[in-house]
Specification:
Blueprint lengths: L1 H31 L6 H55 L1
Length: 94
């Protein structure tokens, strides 16, 4: 009777051990398995590239705005000088 009990206990232990190992393996595969989501990394990359391009475009736009402001100030200054010269010319012709 003791031998039968030992065999039964051993068989029970083997079955529970195998089931536990199978659960561990199944969870390991579920956790470590690569996701089949191919789109997310691509979308993330495209978003990153788009943000970089937007930042560069904003920087260039700011530079162009600065240059346009300098040029507009220079044009205004030249127009003022031109009017002064025109006034002097008109006075000298009279």
């Amino acid at each position: 009777e003791r031998v039968v009990l030992q065999q039964w206990l051993f068989q029970f232990w083997v079955i529970t051990y195998r089931e536990r190992q199978a659960r561990i393996e199944k969870m390991a595969h579920a956790i470590l398995a690569p996701t089949q989501d191919i789109i997310s990394p691509f979308i993330s990359w495209r978003l990153f590239v788009s943000e970089q391009r937007l930042a560069k475009a904003k920087e260039r736009c700011s530079e162009v705005d600065q240059q346009a402001s300098v040029m507009a100030n220079r044009i205004t200054q030249v127009e003022i000088e031109n009017e002064e010269q025109q006034g002097k010319l008109d006075v000298s012709l009279q």
